[in-house]
Amino acid sequence: xxxxxxxxxxxxxxxxxxxxxxxxxxxxxxxxxxxxxxxxxxxxxxxxxxxxxxxxxxxxxxxxxxxxxxxxxxxxxxxxxxxxxxxxxxxxxxxxxxxxxxxxxxxxxxxxxxxxxxxxxxxxxxxxxxxxxxxxxxxxxxxxxxxxxxxxxxxxxxxxxxxxxxxxxxxxxxxxxxxxxxxxxxxxxxxxxxxxxxxxxxxxxxxxxxxxxxxxxxxxxxxxxx
Length: 226
Description:
Blueprint: H1 2-11, E1 16-21, E2 24-29, H2 33-45, H3 47-56, E3 62-66, H4 72-80, E4 83-87, H5 91-103, E5 108-111, E6 114-116, E7 120-125, E8 137-139, E9 142-148, E10 158-161, H6 167-173, H7 175-180, E11 184-190, H8 192-204, E12 207-211, E13 217-224
Parallel strand pairs: 3-4, 3-10, 4-5, 6-9, 10-11
Antiparallel strand pairs: 1-2, 7-8, 7-9, 11-13, 12-13
Helix pairs in contact: 1-2, 6-8
């Protein structure tokens, strides 16, 4: 990973990267190798998902981005005209996400915590403790607070959840919110078994579910089934 990130850092020397998807655009920091990897990976691997995202978000929406990383989804939603609440437990990445939202004049804030099905704390082990780091794991690293999403009391209309395997607990802690205010929800599932279970949770909460991607990581899109 370090060699790959360094090579990309040499190939892409700009400290900022312009992101344009559909009718939305944003400028993201790529000042370090891990940030460069993260932004380029998101644009390459999730371009189709981002296009769906930009189409779904409307001016005036309240967006909850859980596992926001550097804020690519959040910044694009903000450019559309949404109010954004981003959740990113990894502190260096959360701080960078906050700066990216400020840089793009996004109406929003960043919570440096994790969402789950009950209050508590969790330790995060990081392979690379730098902004944009991918795939944190639960372990004995820095302790961060865990909060049920229902307690945020923000009544989001659009939600995105990508928490590296902990999506089920996040959905459980958001159950009341999902049923009362959410129009569209995006959830990344890690593996087919998780995809089936998460789709079931979404349907139970009243959503019609589609798959936007297949493979080792399945992106589920739920829309309120009125």
